[in-house]
Amino acid sequence: MAFDMSQVQRGARLRRSPYFEATQRYGPRGFTVYNHTLFPTHYDDFEKEYWHLLEHVTLWDVAVERNVEVTGPDGSRFAQLLTCRDLSTCEVGQGKYVLITAPDGGILNDPVMLRIDENTFWFALADSDVLFYAFGLAAHAGLDVQVREIDAAPLQIQGPKSKDVVRDLFGEGILDLRYYFFRKIEADGIPVIVTRTGWTSEVGYELYLLDPSRGDDLWERIMEAGRPYEIRPTGPVDIRRIEGGIFNYRADMDWTNNPFELGLDRLVDLDSDAEFMGKDALRRIRDEGVTRKVVGVEITGERLDMNTTRWPVSSNGERVGDVTSAVWSPRLERNIGFAWTLVALSEEGTPLRVATSDGDRDATVVPMPFVDPGKQIPKS
Q1: Which of 161, 210, 211, 349 has a C-alpha 20 to 30 A away from that of 66?
Q2: Residue 319, beta-bridge partner list
Q3: Are strands 292-299 and 359-366 parallel, antiparallel or unpaired?
Q4: For the segment 199-234, what is each residue's pLDDT rounded down to a tens digit?
């Protein structure tokens, strides 16, 4: 049965994506609110959606990733102020996974950024209010820049057959699109930006709808093109993103955490000429070192349902951190997850104890990602 939307308070303050009506026809079984927008969480059993992603192709409404646009004569300078990743190497038509950092080095968001032109940048935001941070920063930066939220609504086509679907939608030429690059194109007159990105660790594409009035049309056009390849709508498929070592903002980290604690050093360009918020703080953190880290863990015992709260982590009877995301991996046939712990307890093979929803269990620190450590699948 479809989820009964009467169970959710649906006042006008909660936004609906351009695909909302279309998703209703396919029977979503649950909703959450993300960036003040209603967000379908799943249409089938979570494990069935996982296997369908791995074996076929899926469609996922991610218009909850609200896009903040930075533009104007000083757009490139201001975009650089927001993120600790050097943007000087980012071409027009290219995207980057970036961190938006606070003055103390904390992570305010981890969006995919698109460089639309020399001075125009889009940031597809995780659940947060970075728009207001950007407003405040722009008010005091002394730069000629405009900041706004735009109606560019992304959705994702993901899985090994995603290339077949986009080829049938846009022609053979779209298969030349490189990983993390994008192209402005039309699908039967519907204007979109197609990016070679996704949040699944599988082969995939994101389509940014540029005319929000055409959401229903685009959704059904994709479903039509995907029918020969067994396309199905799904939710986020957390099992796969955890296998792939993808962090979820607010679940696995927030503004109290810095990139070095998460092993995201590659996104912090302290030795470049780039000027960004938190640069001095991040240089100090790098030089002094961190006291805690996020590690991968395997948790013993029978299958665990995905955690809905943080699970305490202990060592020798003392609490040393928390498990933030944990789930049963059907193909690995074990419970895996992310855990915050002390640096001294972060080495591979270190034993830990986790207070799960089904009681205390032993755990072991293991490398991440759990599957495809070289991240070759999404690039293929």
Answers
A1: 161
A2: 314
A3: antiparallel
A4: 999 999 999 999 999 999 999 999 999 999 999 999
CA distances from 39 to 8, 97, 99, 157 (A): 11, 22, 23, 16
Rounded CA Rg of the chain: 21
Strand partners, 124: 67, 112
What span, in angstroms and rounded, lies between the C-alpha atoms of 141 and 275? Answer: 12
Do the Cβ atoms of 247 and 267 come closer than 8 Å? no
Kindly state the tokens that stand for 324.
Answer: 């933030």
Q: Name the residue among 306, 327, 308, 319 with its Cα closest to residue 354.
A: 319
43 within 8 A of 26, measured Cβ to Cβ: yes
Structure tokens at 239: 């099992």
Rounded Cα distance, 18 and 207, in Å: 13
The CATH class for the domain spanning 291-371 reads mainly beta
Both ends of the chain: CA-CA distance in Å? 37
- Output the six-digit token pair for 153: 């609504």
What is the per-residue pLDDT across 62-72, written as a single tens digit (0 to 9) for each? 999 999 999 99
pTM over 0.85: yes
CATH topology of domain 1-289: Gyrase A; domain 2 (3.30.1360)
- Map out the domains of the chain as residue ranges: 1-289, 291-371
- DSSP annotation of 64 reads T
| Amino acid identity, position 82 | L
